[in-house]
Every structure is written in C-alpha cells, then in structure tokens.
Design brief:
By secondary structure, this protein is α+β, with helices and mostly antiparallel strands. The protein contains 27 helices and 21 strands. About 45% of the residues lie in helices and about 15% in strands. The strands form six sheets. The chain has a five-stranded mixed sheet with strand order 1-2-5-4-3. Helix 18 packs antiparallel against helix 21 (about 480-515).
Length: about 725
C-alpha cells in the first residue's frame, strides 16, 4: 500500500513535536537522570496515538499541548508520575482511552491522577455560576486526594493562557482569562508558586485590559530611557556594598509586573507617577546568618521606609514561604524593595508546594503529609461540607482565596494567617467552628476589643467563649472569611426555618383558596418523596425561602388542574422582586423580596450588581436597596426588624446599565475631558451626568455618573482611567 505524501504543515508539526520531545528529555536529565525515560517515551507515544487527528483552536496538532504542559512541570522539577500525568492528562476526557488502559500501562497512581485532572476539564466550558461552582467543588475534592492534581492543572492552564490568541472569539478569551485570574492565580499563590502566579496574572491582564497594560508598559519604557540602565546601576552598588563586608551574594533586580503595578494603583488610589517602588531586588546568600548580616549592612547604609519591614524567616508564612522583605531609599535615591533569602528559600519561594514534590532520594509520596499544613485547603473543604447553594459556595471560597493576608498570633504564639480586614470572629472560626459559634468576646494584645475590630499584623488574639452563646446575625455584616460567613448563614437559615415554614404554608394556603380547594396537610405530605425532601415542613420552608415556587407545588399536587393563573410564570415572580431603577431602565431582579414590593436604589451609595446589598423597609416607601457598607445604614442600627437579607438575582441575557458614580480629579489642560470620555467609552461605559465640584489653576474635581453593567465593569473603567496620564485620582463615590 502506498503512503500518501505529507504536506509541509504536517512535516513542520512533526518537527515541532520531535523538538519538544528532545527539550522534555533534556530538561528531565538536568535534574534527575534516574527517571525512567522509557516510561516517559511510552506515555508520549500513547498520547500521540490517541490525540492523532485532533487540533487546537490555533490549528496546531493537539498532542503538542500535553508535551508543553509536561515541559512546564519538568522545568519546576516535579516527579516522574506528575510529568507522565501531564503527558496523558487529556486522554481520558478527549479520546477513547480508558482508566483501565492507563492503569494497565502506567500504574494506579498515574491513572488516578489523570482521572482527577479529567474531572476538571469542563470548568472552562461552563458559563453558569452554579455549574462553575460544581466544577470548583470537584477541583477541591481532587486536590484533597492528591495536590499534584492542582499542579498539573496549573501547568495546563498556564500553557492555555500562553496560547490564548489561538481562540478566535474575544468573549471566550476574556472569560477564560477572568476565570484564571479569579481561581487559578489565587490557587497558585496559596501554594507558594509565585513565578507561575505572576505569569498567569500578567497574561490575564493582557487579555482583559490590554490598553491599561500597554499604557503601563509604555511608561516603564519611558522610565528606562530616562534613567538609563538603572537596575544594573543599583545592582552594582549593592554588590560592592555587600562585598566590602565579605558577603558573597547573587543579586537580581526587575521591574514589577504590569498587573502588580496596576493593582497597586487601584489599591492605593494613585496614578502611575505617584508609585515610587516599582523596582524589586532579590539578594540570595549562602545561609540564614548571612541573610541577617546583609540586612544589617543595607539598613546601615540606607534609610528604611517605616512599616515596610517583614521577617518571614523567623516567622514563615503558613504556606512555607521564607524571606526577609524591606524597603529602603537606596542607591540613586530610589525607593526600592529588597528581598533577602538563601538559595533553598529562593527555590521554595518560586516553586512553593511543587518543591515538596521534587525527586529526593526516591521519597516522594511521604511528602504528601505537607499538604495538611495548608489551613486554607482545610477551610475550603469545610465550607464545601456546609449546606448551601453552589453560588454561595463559590462566593465564600473566593473570599478565602482572593484577599491579601495579615498574620496574627494565638495566645500560645502560633502564627495564624487571616485575610486582610479579618476580625476576632473570623479568627475564632479559623481556630474551630465550635469556637466561632460560642464566641462572646475577644482580647487583642491583652485588652478587650469589639468583635468587629480589624486585626493588624502581629496582633495576639484571645477568644472568650460561652457554652450558651450562638452566632449573631449581625456578625455577617463585618466578617470577611468564607468559613465564618458559611457558618453564620447556616445558623441564620436554621433560626429562620420556623419563619419560612409559616410563610410558605401561608403562601400555599392562599393558592389553594384562590383555586377553590380546601388546604390539607395530607395533600402536601403526599408529594414529599416526589420533591425529594424528608417532611412537609421542608416543602413549606423551601417555599418561604424562595427555593420552591408555591404555584409549582400546587401544580405538583394537582397536575390535572388547569386555570389561567396556572399558566403564568409564577416561578419568576415568587423567586424575585423586580426593582425599577429611578432612571426608568429595565427591571432588575432582586432575590429575597416578596413580589409586588416597591423597590428603589439608594442614591447615597448607588448599589451595582456585584455589590453586597441589604434592603431597608420604609413605611409607605417599600424597600430601599443599599450597599452593605453604606454609611447611611448606621441610622437603622437600632431597628434590625427593618433589615432584609437580599441579593442580586440572575439578570437577563443582555446586561442592563446601572449608574456608578465616580470622584475624578484631572489636570486642567486642553483635551483632558475628551480623553476621559474616550477612555470610558472604550471600556464600555457611558457618561450620563457630569458635575464639576472644584476648579483650580491646575486641576479640576468632578463627579461622573457612568452607565456600567456591574462592579467588575466599574472597576475596569476606574483602572483604565487611572492608567490615563490626564487623570490624577479616581475613586468610586459613595455620597450624594
């Protein structure tokens, strides 16, 4: 049989594959020549055979992708099993290969790891928040079995982000980038893989906000031209300074990434020119003693910046990170951040948990016990066990992942990592859920403090408990950890169950009467099994809380009954109240309200979808929706009966516009107003109102009302404005 000639594209693809195979083999040989290369090559042949004929969005053969993922893991020196898993990671999901085949050819470990990764692949294709939450549950469960599932998945996501331009639809690229930024980059941070996290973040930034990133890169390029090779000059000065004291050090310097600069501009509400420490330098020395010696030399030579010194060698971060951080007014009068560490610390800082999976004397599996040190993973798994909606689970786990950290001490001196803004109640739940439930007070640094006090780095916290105490619903207003929120919400749900039962029963009775039926308990009991609940009270409680529609329950009891009212979409009206914006826009669904309530948005805080909100009942006015941090809410503190637990419902397919108000200061020069109008328009916003509040010779202050879809959209507009040279400051306005 004659073989048809291959075209040039196929030849090039084969050549690329062979080159990557050589790269992978070479990389493996550099850190562990004892790895069984025959087994690796067998996996490569297996993957190529089963992926034959499949292509990626860019048109290249699919089997190049698993090779690249394996190469990423080889570069961070992972074990043989992880590398083989990377090569095979898509075979179960995308080919005819079976778990039994993998087990037979490569062993139980590889088969189970590939199976764990395969369960997660659909996370990219989900758009509904509930479905994404379910896939995130799978990720957590797979991580709890073997953390290498996460390492393979992170490498897979990194290569997907590097090749994201191969996807033609910009909406899909942005969705993948947003998911990467919200889930995978924080996970990389939490296991200490800082280099991978930074690359993921910058790739996401390039996709989600290319104009802002380009603006920052242009300014960095301008600074390089103005200052010459400033990084090299500073390195030379530091090298000579340490060398005179007999310290041998490897010094590297770099500009911070575009994304980290952008985040700092957002966090500090400053323009690019107001940032002073955009350069970071790393000093790697031989041992711990020289770390402190080098620190002393640098502090003796240069003024330190107060509040910017952190010693993570004497008190390592809970994820194992060790280093000394300090900021000084250094050479060339530049404010620079300096990190001092040993070579071992440096490797672990970049690789994080992956460093524990490096091949060391054949003892790999024993290091799985290191996973137990990761409190955040235990917290996420505990949240997973709580009875709540998938959307609630995803929100609570994001709280655990995304916030910056503070480090506090227990009375015994144990270092506890908490999210920034955490309170003693968060700390109590971090110790144990029972401690959180029974909290009545707290001592911070030996003094009694309110339970809503924000903890600071270095605080020593002692929790006071009582057996008769229960969680207070007011705690939910100030706690920040997902674990605390999930436990408090669960208690509130249990406490409110009686109220929901009474409300649900009343709603169902009303429908019975309207349709001409006598209400009987027996009728409801008859559908308990059909509704997959335990008792009739469960049905009433679900109606009262909005999980079931009273109309649907009636139709389930009397399926043959037909009336005009039965044809109405009762589900939508009983799950949501539709709030009509003051500007006459389209109705907005709000969960937690009785249909028919008069609803409007507070002008003191301009709530947007994405904000945490609360409803305040006003006699004769209906319900006013405020953001949870609105200062006006203080006036209702003594009337908790007027507070309603509400949240944004699922909106229509096309997002509706909402008013977001901004305080903006711009330079008083020609074209400044035109520039900010263009920036807002390019980011999908629309100015609906503009009021100049202060004029001076050099600057104008103004209030801008901008139509946006939600808080994320408003944040993008704010970030884009901050990247504009004409804008001095911009922040979300909270007043009238």
């Amino acid at each position: 049989m004659n073989t048809p000639p291959r075209d040039m594209t196929e030849t090039a693809d084969t050549s690329s594959f062979d080159a990557r195979e050589r790269d992978l083999a070479g990389q493996i040989q550099t850190f562990d020549p004892d790895i069984d290369m025959d087994r690796v090559e067998k996996a490569i042949a297996f993957a190529r055979k089963y992926h034959e004929g499949q292509t990626r969005g860019s048109g290249e053969p699919y089997y190049l992708h698993p090779m690249e993922v394996a190469l990423i893991l080889a570069e961070i020196k992972l074990d043989e099993t992880s590398i083989i898993t990377a090569i095979l990671h898509d075979t179960l999901e995308d080919t005819d290969a079976t778990h039994a085949e993998l087990k037979k050819e490569f062993g139980q470990d590889v088969a189970d790891l590939v199976n764990g990764v395969s369960k997660l692949t659909k996370i990219e294709s989900q758009t509904a928040k509930g479905k994404q939450a379910e896939n995130f549950r799978k990720l957590l469960l797979a991580m709890s079995e073997d953390i290498r599932v996460l390492l393979v998945k992170l490498a897979d996501r990194l290569h997907n982000m590097r090749t994201l331009e191969g996807i033609k639809r910009i909406e899909k690229r942005q969705r993948i980038a947003r998911e990467t930024l919200e889930i995978y980059a924080p996970l990389a941070e939490r296991i200490g893989m800082h280099s991978l996290k930074e690359e993921l973040q910058d790739l996401c930034f390039a996709t989600m906000n290319p104009e802002a990133r380009e603006g920052i890169q242009n300014r960095l390029q301008f600074l390089r031209q103005e200052g010459g090779d400033l990084v090299k000059k500073i390195i030379d000065v530091l090298s000579k300074l340490l060398g005179k004291q007999g310290i041998e050090a490897e010094i590297t310097g770099r500009e911070k990434t575009g994304y980290s600069i952008w985040k700092k501009m957002q966090r500090k509400n400053v323009a690019f020119e107001q940032l002073s420490d955009i350069m970071a330098f790393r000093i790697v020395v031989e041992n711990v003693e020289e770390c402190y010696h080098a620190l002393g030399v640098i502090h003796s030579a240069y003024p330190t910046v107060p509040g910017r010194f952190k010693d993570f060698i004497s008190t390592p971060k809970p994820n194992g990170y060790r280093s000394i951080h300090t900021t000084v007014i250094g050479p060339e009068s530049q404010r620079i951040e300096i990190q001092i560490r040993t070579q071992e610390m440096h490797f672990e800082a970049d690789m994080g948990l992956a460093a524990h999976w490096s091949y060391k004397d054949g003892e790999i599996r024993s290091n799985q016990e290191d996973v137990k040190k990761y409190r955040w993973l235990r917290e996420l798994l505990e949240i997973l066990e709580q009875e709540q909606k998938p959307e609630e689970f995803l929100d609570n786990t994001k709280l655990e992942l995304f916030q910056e950290q503070v480090y506090v001490f227990s009375p015994k001196g144990d270092l506890i990592e908490m999210p920034s803004g955490a309170t003693p109640v968060d700390f109590a739940y971090g110790i144990h859920s029972d401690v959180g439930d029974r909290t009545v007070g707290a001592k911070i640094n030996g003094r009694i403090a309110p339970l809503n006090t924000r903890l600071q780095n270095g605080d020593q916290v002692e929790i006071i408990t009582a057996k008769t105490q229960n969680p207070s619903p007011t705690w939910e207003r100030f706690v920040v950890t997902g674990k605390a929120k999930s436990h408090i919400r669960r208690f509130i749900r249990q406490q409110q169950r009686g109220e929901y039962i009474a409300l649900g029963q009343a709603m169902l009775k009303k429908i019975f009467q309207a349709e001409g039926y006598d209400f009987t308990e027996k009728a409801v009991t008859g559908i308990v099994k059909q509704m997959r609940v335990t008792e009739a009270d469960d049905i009433y409680a679900n109606i009262g809380s909005g999980h079931f529609s009273a109309r649907d329950i009636f139709k389930t009891i009397f399926p043959a009954h037909k009336t005009e009212t039965a044809k109405k979409p009762a589900k939508a009206t009983e799950d949501f109240a539709l709030a009509k914006p003051a500007d006459g826009g389209a109705p907005v669904p709000i969960k937690g309200l009785i249909p028919g309530m008069a609803v409007h948005f507070a002008r003191c805080c301009h709530p947007l979808p994405g904000d945490r909100i609360v409803g305040i009942v006003s006699t004769g006015k209906g319900v006013t929706i405020h953001t949870i941090d609105c200062e006006t809410l203080e006036t209702f503190a003594d009337t908790p009966e007027r507070w309603l637990d509400v949240s944004w419902g699922e909106g229509p397919d096309s997002p509706e516009a909402h008013v977001g108000r901004l305080n903006v200061t711009i330079e008083n020069k020609p074209g400044a107003l035109a520039t900010i109008s263009t920036v807002i328009a390019k980011n999908g916003g629309n100015i609906t109102n503009l009021k100049i509040t202060n004029r001076s010779l050099d600057f104008w202050d103004m209030l801008l009302d901008v139509y946006v879809n939600d808080t994320r959209h408003l944040s993008n507009v704010i970030a884009a404005l901050r990247a504009s040279p004409e804008v001095t400051t911009v922040e979300r306005a909270r007043g009238r």
